[in-house]
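Teaching assistant's notes for section 4

Start the section by putting this record on the projector. Ask students to predict, before seeing the second block, whether ZC12D ribonuclease will look compact or extended. Collect guesses on the board.
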Amino acid sequence: VHQNKLDFFCKLGYSKQDICKVLENLGQEALEDDVLKELIRMGSKPQALESQAQPSSLKLIARGSCSTSPGLKWLGEDDRDSTDHLRPIVIDGSNVAMSHGNKEVFSCRGIQLAVDWFRAQGHTYIKVFVPLWRKEPPRQDSPIADQHILEELEKQSILVYTPSRKVKGKRVVCYDDRYIVKVAYEKDGVIVSNDHYRDLQNENPEWKWFIEQRLLMYSFVSNRFMPPDDPLGRHGPTLRNFLSKKPILPEPKWQPCPYGKKCTYGNKCKFYHPERLHQAQLSVADELRAKIKVPLSLGKEGKCTHSP
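Reveal the predicted structure now:
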C-alpha cells in the first residue's frame, strides 16, 4: 500500500521526501484525498509547477535592438531593401544625349550624368533605351561624343538597344519611344525625357494619363543633370514624392490671413492669425457685445456713485 501511494503521488510530480513525511504523519492507510490536502498544506509543489515558477533562461529582446543570436528573429520582419519605395526609372537615351549636346551632337556623357544622378538618389532599377544604330561609327550628319560610355552602360545591364536593321541599303528603325513608354507603364515607373509623346498619348488613353502624370523633364546646367523640384507644377507633388511609391505627406503649414487684423470672420476664419494666439476665439458679434458692455457698466457705476 505504501509503495502504491508513493508511486501514485510521484507520478503527480511530488517529491518522495514530502510523500513519506505525510504518510508518516497520517498513517499508511490514509486516503489519497487526505494525503493530497496535507501535501498542499505543507507547501509541496509538483515539479512541473516549480519549473514554470522558475525564471526562463530566454530573454526578451526589444524590437529594433541588436541581437547576437542570429536565430532569434521577429515574425513579420523581412530583409527588404530600403530602396523598394523608389520608382523604376526609364530614360529616353536619345533625348537626353541630344539635349546635353545642344541638339547638335549625340553626347553619351549626358546619359551617364542622368544615370549617376538617379543612382545617388538610391534608385536600383534604371534602364536607358537607345537605337541600335548608335553603335555604328559616327558620321558627319550624326556625330557622337564619348561613344565608349554606351558600351560601359551595356555591360552594367543599364543600356538597352532598340532593334534596327538595313534593308537594301536603307535603315529600318523600330520606334524606340514605344519601348520607353511601354516598359515604364508596365513597371509603374517614371519616364525621363523632354518629349511629350503626343502621338502615343492619342494612341492609347491609358498611356495618355500615364505620360501626363509620370513624365519627368530635366535640364543640363554646366554638365549637371537637374530635374525640377515640382515636376507636375506648382501645386503638384515634390520631386521626392514624385519619385517615391509611397509619398511622404508634408507637415501642414498655416497660411496667414490676407486681411490680418482687419479680418471680420472671427473664429470662423480658416486662415492663421498670429495676434489671436492668446485670445479667446469669439465670434464677431460676441466681440462687439463684449466691447459695448464694458463702457455701459462703467457708466452705470459712475451714476450710482453720484446719486444720493
